[in-house]
Amino acid sequence: MKKLLLILPRLESGYWGHVSKSGKAGMVRLSLPTIAALTPPDWSVEILEARTTAVDFDARVELVGITAFTAELPSAYAIADGFRARKTPVVMGGFHVSVMPEEALAHADSVVIGEAEPVWESVIRDAEKQALKPVYQAGHLIEMKQMAVPRRELLNKNMYATGFNTLQATRGCPYNCEYCAISAFFGRKYRHRLVSEVIGEIENFDTKSFFFVDDNITANKRYAGDLFRTLIPLNRVWGGQSDINFAFDDQLLSLYAKSGGKYAFIGFESLSEANLNRMPKSLNSPDKYKTAIKRSQKAGISVLGSFIFGLDDDDPGVFERTVDFIRKSGMDATQFHILTPFPGTRLYDEMDRQGRIVDKDWGRYHTSDLIFSPFSMTPEELMRGYYWAFRKIYKLNRTLVRSLRSMHNIAPRASLNFGYRKKAMQMPALS
Ligand code: SF4
Q: Are 170 and 190 in contact (CB under 8 A)?
């Protein structure tokens, strides 16, 4: 039987996406288990986590498949080079190589541009004939009907928090924020699976809790309402990513909570209207943030807010303003990211045109490093402020106050808070 080896590369720096000393990683990433499920049954498939397992370049396999986030590219290309040096063909896929296929083809035999579903079987059949094409690309986005169910059993379950499954119900985003690669890759048309198919996948989970990896699970309120309503009898516990508007829809908010939605990741991004208008992220409005948080919490949903630092309207006072807002808002947990112009986004094109990108070492594109010239502060001010804000928010007393805010949802809230505190404490303590 022919063998496909799928590899998830490693990150060399940054604070996100690493495996902890106890061997735990963050969330289950679905891309490789999905590719495994799309592979014809006459092939055997192995998934290798390069974060924890050394790569054996002499492994006897007919094809190697690699997917990577931008920051994982140095590791991904090194792995690809290692296999190709031994004449083992390599195919790569994912956001980054889809927008930079020429770069990837210097390391791989083939690149899958965009969604793999329509083309993966051709990749496999061409690999059997040793006739791989350089590029595989479907001319259309898929309908999301009868989607392959990711082969999660190929993952090392011990690496992931107990009881943690992920799944995807929708793709695409109707919004078009300039820094976001989602709409560039999955399109602006919001596509969704049949509710019955999503529910069927959840029913087969071996755990009670799970996470919707969708970029915005509530973007289509009618679909989200149907999904949540059907989910209620399953008595599950879940979290997902959403925009703030769901918090102003009484019915959706109630269904989110009743169906077991315990927490929501919300991209607040900025307190500055000028920043939000420039993105443009017009669905966000800072004067609604506190109300959205309070309404969600009242419904029983914890809020994890994400903020970006380094936007053009961010001056050196942005860190203190944001930390102050977070404290007063009562938000349950917070993430900060340095603005990162990922290739394939409008932000990247614009900054590149302006000559503001100072480093194209993709290994630094992990949102906790600075690779462009900020507009309203110095690079040093931005990095110092980022570390300061993270450490300030995750001081032990604040971490405890947020975790113990209420006994309701205490487990996920405490776990998020102490997880982020651990990262914050690894950051430089600058005076
Ligand atoms: S940042 Fe969020 S709202 Fe904006 S385009 Fe990306 S997924 Fe959509």
A: yes
**Beta strand pairing call for 90-93 and 110-113:** parallel
Looking up tokens 């974060």 gives: 51
CA of 304 to the centre of ligand 1 (A): 16
Band of residue 368 on the pLDDT scale cut at 50, 70, 90 = very high
3-class DSSP state of 409 = coil
- What is the per-residue DSSP string for 94-152? SHHHHH-HHHHHTT-SEEEES-STTTHHHHHHHHHTT---SEEE-SS-----SPPPP-G
The answer to whether 191 touches 172, Cβ cutoff 8 Å, is yes
Test site for ligand 1: of 95, 178, 183, most ligand atoms within 8 A of the Cβ: 183
Class of domain 161-426: alpha beta
pTM value surpassing 0.90: yes
Q: What is the CA radius of gyration of the chain?
A: 22
Would you kindly state where each structural domain of the chain is located, as residue ranges? 2-137, 161-426
Fold of 2-137: Rossmann fold (3.40.50)
CB atoms within 10 A of CB 222: 8
pLDDT tens across 315-328, in order? 999 999 999 999 99
